[in-house]
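Morning F.,

Quick status update on the modeling queue. The single chain you submitted on Monday has been processed. Sequence for confirmation:
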Amino acid sequence: MASKMEMASRLGTSRSSLDRMLSLKGNSTVGSLEKVAHALGKRVEIRLV
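Structure tokens below.
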């Protein structure tokens, strides 16, 4: 798994910005989550069942 510094670099942002994105107290958007997922080689899937 990538370190936070590595992920921040892949996202073109700072580690503190990444920490805010990943924080449960933060106000992450689906777009932010998609960027993180893409940096990890993953995708976001939202399903209502």
